[in-house]
Structures are given as structure tokens and as C-alpha cells.
């Protein structure tokens, strides 16, 4: 048995690939849970600090824009420095963001926390996605699409339950997340390195899209449907809890958390069901599901019928999840191992633009037209995008 030299730190033994894969999945879930956890708390923040629906969407979107910047700057960094170092850096920043949330006593603190969280999540998103594909390309594609959905559901539903049933929810939510992140950071020290570091780290941080030529046409074809799905998610995570109160007539925080969880859990279930079906066929079917689900949801909003509202969300969530899974599976063969992090970061840039910009526009519209009218107009635009994707998929077939 070898003994470390005197004074030299012992290097922790690396994890087995299966344990490493499980830890990376858990990291994705925790990062996305942390990103959705503030959503059920927004109503409490508004009551405590008194701000408008527009400022609420600005708080929400500050996270998304910071995440976009981080994806553009750090998206390909792990291809050069190695996966483990970038994962650990993202965890340190995320822990800092949770501390800011925990100490927040004004909108300024909230925006600062969301910005730092966006940087941390953006740094982690592409490297965690690439690591899953490195460790197991087949299962990695599935969990790249499945884990974020599960994470958002855990964060929204868990936070809303704590808000409704636990004491001091504006602190307890973040204390739970802080414990989970610190434990995962300790375990992440033992993650195996899956790529060989190579020169060019500084050059890779110049903001630009990292889309290989072979994948560019495919990315463009995926955009209408991907935009519709992510724009729906952005609306639900920002204004969804308020909309749930309007439609159900109940002011319970759990209603908003349940709405978000319904969307993303049905998305996760659909991903699992379609994981081995041909991606092109799934894209066509998911476009139809998203359009039909949105139409039913809008009927529920117009009639203020909770059954239609949640029922439509179930169908739309299935369309969103299935389309995202098929998109990721379509992109995997279009990049070499050293191009994967860059391609996935670019794909997430486009996804999070759809996640944030429409939500800000919706926040602006709520001030002039009201939440119900804004929701109907917003939803009709998404229906049109889904139908456009469905027609395009039929023509390609």
C-alpha cells in the first residue's frame, strides 16, 4: 500500500462510474429544485415588500439572463479545464446564492441572489449535461431531459408545502437547500474526470455560440416547438402561482406549487415513456399534445374552471417533456465528445431565452390588460408555435 508523502494532502478515491452518474443526476435535480423554490414564495415577498407583477417577472428573469450569460461564457469551459473543477465552482456559487436568499430582506437582495444563482446554474448546466453523456451516452440523454423536470417539481412543490405548513418558510426553504448542496459538494470532490484537459480555456470563455456545423440546421428546426415549451415553463414559474389563485379562487400557496409540479412531473413522465421511440415521431406527436393541452388550459382560464385548467396542464406538460427529450436525443449524435458541452450550452441559451423574454413581456402586459387576458393572448401565441412545429414535422416526414 502506498503512503502519501509527508505534508502532501491525500487524494480522495474516485467514485465508480455508476455512483458518479447517480451523484450527477442528484446535482442536476438540486440545482433545478433551487431554481424553482423561490416561485411559491413570490406572493409572500410581494406582500412583505410591495412590488408589482412586472417587478416579479424582472426578479424571475434576472436569474434567466444571468444563466444565459454564464452559458455563453462558461458553456465550453469544462471541455478544457475538466468536468469536476467546473462542477465544484458551480456548487460554490450556488451555495453563495442560497445564503443571499436566506438573508434577503428587500427586492435588491432577491435580485442579487437570483443573478448569482443564474450564474451558478448556467455554469453547472452544460457541464453536468456533458458529464452525464460522458458517463453513459444512452442513459445520459434520458436523464439530461428527465432530471431538470424532477428538480423543478421538487423545488416548487417542496417550497409551497413548507410555505403552507412549516414555520418561517422564507428561511427554512433555503436552509434545507443549503444542507443538501454542502453535502453534495463534499461528495463531488470524488467525481472521476471524464475528459482530458486541453489548452484553450481562456479562448473558450469568449461569449459565442458553440454549435457544430453539423448540428445547426437541426437546432433551427427544433426551435419553434422548443420555444413554445420553454415559454410555457417560464410563464408558469413566474406568474403561474398567481394564476392558480385566480382560477381556483383559493389563496393557498400549495395551489401554485401544485400547478408547477403538474406541468413538470407530467413532462418527466412523458420523457420516460418516449425515451426509446424514434425522436422524429416523438417531436411530431409532442407538438400536437402541446397545442391541444394549451387549448384546454386556456378554456379553463377563460371559464375559471380548475378541472380544465389543471387537465390542460397535464396534457401540455406531456407535450413539453416529450418534445424536450426528443430534442436532446436528436442533438447527441450531432456532436463529438469535445463539442458536447458547447452544443448543450448553446441549446440551453436558446431555451432560456424562450424561458425568460416572453415572461417579461407577459409581466408588462399584465399591468395593462390584466392577468386573465394576458394569459389568453400568451397561450394563443404558444398554440400557434406548436401548430407550426407540427406542420413542419409532417412535411419533413
What does this structure look like?
The chain contains 16 helices and no strands. The protein is an all-alpha fold and 397 residues long. The protein has a single domain (17-396), classed as Up-down Bundle (Growth Hormone, Chain: A). Helix 10 (213-238) runs antiparallel to helix 16 and helix 13 runs antiparallel to helix 16. The longest helix has 30 residues, at 340-369. It is globular, with a radius of gyration of 21 Å.
Q: What is the overall shape? A: globular
SSE arrangement, N to C: HHHHHHHHHHHHHHHH
Residues in helices, as a percent range: over 70%
Helical/strand content category: mainly alpha
Strand content range: under 5%
Unreliable runs: 1-11
Number of separate strands: 0
Provide the CATH architecture.
Answer: Up-down Bundle
What is the CATH level 1 assignment? Mainly Alpha
Average pLDDT over all residues: 86
What descriptors fit this protein?
397 residues, single chain, mainly alpha, 81% helix, globular, Growth Hormone, Chain: A
List the helices and strands and how they pair.
Elements: H1 17-36, H2 42-49, H3 53-74, H4 78-81, H5 83-103, H6 107-135, H7 137-165, H8 169-188, H9 201-204, H10 213-238, H11 240-248, H12 253-274, H13 279-303, H14 306-331, H15 340-369, H16 371-396
Helix pairs in contact: 1-6, 1-7, 1-8, 3-6, 3-15, 5-6, 5-8, 6-7, 6-15, 7-8, 7-12, 7-14, 10-11, 10-14, 10-15, 10-16, 11-12, 12-14, 13-14, 13-16, 15-16
Pfam families: MFS_1
Organism: Pseudacidovorax intermedius
GO molecular function, one term: transmembrane transporter activity
Amino acid at each position: 500500500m502506498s503512503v502519501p508523502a509527508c505534508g502532501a494532502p491525500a487524494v480522495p478515491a474516485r467514485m465508480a462510474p455508476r455512483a458518479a452518474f447517480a451523484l450527477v443526476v442528484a446535482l442536476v435535480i438540486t440545482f433545478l429544485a433551487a431554481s424553482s423554490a423561490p416561485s411559491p414564495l413570490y406572493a409572500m415577498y410581494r406582500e412583505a415588500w410591495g412590488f408589482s407583477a412586472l417587478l416579479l417577472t424582472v426578479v424571475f428573469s434576472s436569474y434567466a439572463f444571468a444563466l444565459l450569460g454564464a452559458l455563453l461564457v462558461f458553456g465550453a469551459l469544462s471541455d478544457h479545464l475538466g468536468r469536476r473543477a467546473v462542477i465544484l465552482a458551480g456548487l460554490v456559487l450556488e451555495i453563495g446564492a442560497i445564503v443571499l436568499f436566506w438573508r434577503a430582506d428587500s427586492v435588491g437582495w432577491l435580485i442579487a441572489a437570483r443573478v448569482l444563482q443564474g450564474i451558478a446554474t448556467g455554469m453547472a448546466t452544460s457541464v453536468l449535461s456533458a458529464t452525464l453523456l460522458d458517463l453513459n451516452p444512452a442513459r445520459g440523454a434520458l436523464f439530461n431531459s428527465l432530471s431538470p423536470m424532477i428538480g423543478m417539481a421538487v423545488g416548487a412543490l417542496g417550497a409551497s408545502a413548507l410555505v403552507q405548513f412549516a414555520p418561517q418558510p422564507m428561511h427554512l426553504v433555503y436552509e434545507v437547500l443549503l444542507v443538501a448542496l454542502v453535502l453534495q459538494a463534499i461528495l463531488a470532490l470524488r467525481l472521476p474526470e471524464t475528459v482530458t484537459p486541453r489548452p484553450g480555456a481562456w479562448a473558450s470563455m469568449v461569449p459565442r455560440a458553440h454549435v457544430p456545423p453539423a448540428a445547426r440546421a437541426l437546432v433551427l428546426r427544433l426551435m419553434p416547438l422548443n420555444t413554445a415549451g420553454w415559454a410555457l415553463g417560464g410563464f408558469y414559474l413566474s406568474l403561474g402561482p398567481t394564476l392558480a389563485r385566480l382560477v381556483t379562487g383559493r389563496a393557498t400557496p400549495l395551489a401554485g406549487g401544485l400547478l408547477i409540479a403538474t406541468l413538470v412531473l407530467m413532462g418527466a413522465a412523458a420523457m420516460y415513456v418516449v425515451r426509446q421511440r424514434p425522436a422524429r415521431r416523438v417531436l411530431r406527436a409532442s407538438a400536437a399534445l402541446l397545442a391541444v393541452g394549451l387549448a384546454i388550459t386556456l378554456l379553463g382560464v377563460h371559464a375559471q374552471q380548475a378541472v380544465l385548467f389543471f387537465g390542460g396542464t397535464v396534457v401540455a406538460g406531456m407535450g413539453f417533456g416529450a418534445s424536450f427529450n426528443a430534442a436532446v436525443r436528436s442533438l447527441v449524435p450531432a456532436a463529438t465528445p469535445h463539442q458536447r458541452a458547447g452544443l448543450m450550452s448553446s441549446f440551453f441559451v436558446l431555451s432560456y431565452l424562450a424561458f425568460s423574454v416572453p415572461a417579461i413581456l407577459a409581466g408588462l402586459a399584465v399591468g395593462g390588460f390584466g392577468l386573465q387576458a394576458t394569459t389568453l393572448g400568451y397561450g394563443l401565441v404558444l398554440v400557434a408555435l406548436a401548430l407550426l412545429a407540427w406542420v413542419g414535422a409532417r412535411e419533413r416526414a
